[in-house]
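Entry:
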Amino acid sequence: MSARVSGVVVTAVVVVASFPALARAGKIYYADTLPRNGSRQVSVKVAKPAAFRILLRTSTQGRTRLYLLGAHAPKGGPLIDTKTYHCDGAAGSWYCKGSYETLPPGTYTFRVVFATSAPTNPGGLELTINW
């Protein structure tokens, strides 16, 4: 599991694979290998209203869904679902981009759920979050 961070303080809690971060504006880059039918999550605490921009790279095998959780997060299912969302693909990888409206200050958790019969290749999941 690896994470590169720019402009934020990150503390890793390995047991739940969660990364809380405190910042006003910043960027988180997270890369990992997902087991079959596995999930990972990244948490961000923002002190001011924030609009999130996301880039998700994942395997074209199986199905990957990205959820946003939090008290003020939008309801109604995944932000990105590789089965229904328009993603660009090349050489076995999906590249999915999204921009989301400004949300009030608070803690937000981005949860990636990967459903397939085989794990991703090393570095098979990349999630970049900007706000």
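The mean pLDDT is 81.
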